[in-house]
Structures are given as structure tokens and as C-alpha cells.
Amino acid sequence: VVDRESIFSHPEVQALLKAKFVNLAMNDWYMRRQEDAEGVFFRKMTEASPRGNAGQATRQGRYVFTAAGKFLGFNNNRSVERMLQLLQDSLTTWETLPEADKYPAESPTKGPVDRKYNEPLPAGGAIVKVHTRVLHKTADGTYQAVKLAPDQTKLENPGFAAATDHLWLQPAEVAALRENTVPAELLRRLTRYHLVDNTRGEPPSWKPQDIKIAKLSLKPESAGKSQLLGEFSMETADGKRGCKLTLEGSLTWEGEKLSQLEAVVLGEHWGEGTYTRNAREGHQPIGFSLRFVPNPRPEDLVRPQFSHWLKGYWTATE
Amino acid sequence: MNRLILTCLAGFWLAPSTHAAPQTRQELLQLIAPSADESVWMQIPWETDLTKARERAAAEKKPLFLWEMDGHPLGCV
Q1: Number of residue pairs across A and B with CB atoms under 8 Å?
Q2: pLDDT of the residue at A150
Q3: What is the DSSP code string of A277-313?
Q4: Does B15 have pLDDT greater than 80?
Q5: Do A311 and A145 meet the contact criterion of CB atoms below 8 Å apart?
Q6: B33, A289: Cβ pair inside 8 Å?
Q7: What values do phi and psi take at A114, rounded to 5?
Q8: What is the DSSP secondary structure assignment for residue B76, as one 8-state letter?
Q9: Closest approach of A41 to chain B, Cα-based (Å)
Q10: Distance from the CA of A283 to the CA of which of A14, A297, B26, B57 falls in 20 to 30 A?
């Protein structure tokens, strides 16, 4: 979130990236493990960088390279000035390269894909965009976004911006929702992996024993439309982290085809995870928005954060 | 002992919601989703497919810029 706001929103960085580069965003957790042509290409390119041969360790950062695989530059900091320097230096190097270092001799091909890390959403499944935002609640009950204090900067990552994830639904689950039934797997998946405070980074998911209440029900409202209501309560064994939430939403259908799913989840959360420190003190308001994506763009096809082991994500029992 | 209530029966109906916010659902959806200011970074046309990006880079005679994160930059938190 900090990178998005502090670097990739900067007008000079944007102008250079749009004009002079082909821009690519990828998940390092998959790329450093994939045993296929893309994984091999990525690891070979990064081994020429300061990351070196990182093995299974993280290779995250910002890289500039050529279509032929020639490494040109790297950084992994949040300075706009150093990002601009990286881009300019890389362009200077690019200009000096022979054609063979710039372009592959043959058009790149994917070859056999490592399915373990490239499993797509099943045909007929559905994507629900999930955003999370910590909130402020006024005396009259109105929810507001939390603003930075005058002495705070975005680089301190207070987690006040919206976080993004994708909830995946199996085709059979979409069909069940059409019958106003909420599959148990879907309810567990939503609860354990998506109703989490991910506003300051990747949080722990809820363990099955953390879930005290998870209710979700559908009530036919009119032809082709149902109301969705839910109640959730999660708390770790030590009581240090938790959420109490209610959900209100609706589903709309055109025949058997889902045309709209939107829901708002509101309530309070408390605590923090190992990698999500600096939560606000005590019990604080939080909100989640859920919206079905009928016509996904590439960024909508990004896998759910907790789907590293996709089978486990689907069943949400482990 | 922890009390676990996991209910997903279509016939089960919850009591009216306790959202009790004066805002409409649409207002709340808009509040929680990224604002225009928070979405400026998406004005950069990000590719998500390495092979396709390499094809484009060769065709457009440009280098590639890669934003690599442990967790996808376009979908992770």
C-alpha cells in the first residue's frame, strides 16, 4: 500500500514508466518456486541482481531487465529519487546494449506451465473483490475513513488506505447461491481468509478454533434477487486479536447467471499479527466491501492471498 | 470451551442487521473501496503475465520494469 501511494503515484515515476517501459507486477512467492519456463527465466534474471541466487528466500523488489533476460537494475526502497535514478540509469544502459541482449532470438513461449503455482479460477467460478479499510465512527454512528495525523506520513504505513484481495467461488458454489444456499466451504473461506485485518500487510488467517460465530444466510427478496445477511465473531485463544462483524448485502441474478453480488461488512477489530504491527489501540471500527467482478481485468484475476495451497483455500479446513 | 456456531442453512434467517449506520450501502461501499487518490498507481498499465510482457517489450522495443512482491502487488493487501 505504501509503495502504491508513495512511489507509483508519483507523476515523474508514472510518466517514465508509461513512456519508456513495459510494466509488470508479479507475486514473488510463486515466481521463485515455479518449475516452468517463466520461473526459470525469472530466477536466472534475478541471479544477476543484488539478490543473487536467493534460493527459496524472497526476491521481492523492483527490477529492470530486457525481453532477452538481461538484468539492468534493481532497488527495493521507498525513495522516489532512488526509483527515478534506477529508471534513468537502466535506460542509459539499455541504449548501449547490443540487439541480442535486448530481444530474444525467438518469440517467448510459456511452454508447459507449473500448475501448482498457476491454477486459474475454474470456468464458471466467480471473483468477488474484497476491500478492507479501518474506519472511524462518529457519535451519530457515521463511518468515516481514518485520516493521517498532521505529523504522520504515508511511509509510516499506518494502514489507513484500503486493502485489496479476491474471494474465489467455485462454480458449484455459485449454483448453490442461486438456490439461496450458502455452502459451508464458502462460509469458512470467507471467514477465515477474507474477514481479516490486512490493512498493514499480510495478517494471519483465522484458525478454525478462532471462529466463535460464522453465520451467513440468503433470503429471497424478489424474482432474481436475494438479501444476504451475516454475523461473525473471531478471536484468538489468547484474546489478543479478534473481530466482531455484521454483513448486509444482496445477490442479483439474470436467469441462472449471477449479475451482482455486493455486501458491506462492518464491526470492530482488535490486535495485530507478527507482520502487521502498529494496529490502533483497543477495539476499533473496520469495514469490508465485497463486490462481484462480472468482467475481470488482469488485476482482478490475481489469486486470493491465502491460496498458496489452492486445495486448502477451497476447503478452508486445514 | 469455545463456542462455535457455523450456520449456513438457507432456511436459517438472522435477526435484522446491527449495522445501524446512517449511510446507505452504496455510500459504505464507496467509503471502504480505494478512493481516486489511492488508485492513481493503477493508471500505470500493469501486465501480470511475464511471457506476454516480454512479447510486448520486444515488439515495442522497451525494457521491462518488474514490481515483485511477496504477495501480488495488484491484489495483496
Answers
A1: 292
A2: 78
A3: --PPSSSEEEEEEEEE-SS--GGGGSPPTT-SSHHHH
A4: no
A5: no
A6: yes
A7: -70, 100
A8: -
A9: 9
A10: B26
Quick one: which of A139, A289, A30 has its CA closest to B50?
Answer: A30
Determine which helix (DSSP H) or strand (DSSP E) holds A213, and give its type and residue range. strand A211-222
Query: Among all residues of chain B, which has the CA nearest to that of A86?
Result: B65
A196, A210, A188, A192: which is closest to A273 by C-alpha?
A196
- CA dist A180 and A219 (Å) reads 7
Could you give the 3-state DSSP secondary structure of residue A167? strand
Beta-bridge partner residues of B47: A24
pLDDT along chain A (318 residues), means of 10: 78 97 95 95 95 88 97 93 97 98 95 91 97 95 89 72 95 98 98 96 94 97 96 98 97 97 98 91 97 95 93 92
Instruction: Summarize chain B as % helix, strand, coil (round to 5).
Output: 35, 15, 50
- Give the three cell numbers for residue A8: 507509483
Chain position carrying cell 515495442: B60
For A290, list phi and psi in degrees, rounded to 5.
-125, 125
Residue with the three cell numbers 471500527: A285
Cβ atoms of residues A195 and A211 within 8 Å? no
Partner residue opposite A217 with nearest CB, options B14, B71, B74: B14
Reading the block at residue A141, the C-alpha cell is 454512528
Banded pLDDT at B17 (limits 50, 70, 90)? very low
What gap in Å lies between CA A19 and CA A21, rounded to an integer? 6
Predicted pLDDT at A157: 64
In the block, which residue shows the cell 500500500?
A1
Distance CA A306, CA A187 (A): 15
Residues A68-76: contacts with CB within 8 Å, 24+ apart?
Answer: A68/A100, A68/A101, A68/A102, A68/A103, A68/A104, A68/A105, A69/A41, A69/A44, A69/A45, A69/A104, A70/A45, A70/A97, A70/A101, A70/A102, A71/A45, A71/A46, A72/B63, A74/A49, A74/A50
B46 contacts on A by Cβ (under 8 Å): 23-25, 298-299
> Which residue among B17, B22, B65 sits closest to A21, beta carbon to beta carbon?
B65
Partner-chain contact A62 B65, CB within 8 Å: yes
Q: Tell me if residue A155 falls in helix, strand or coil.
A: helix
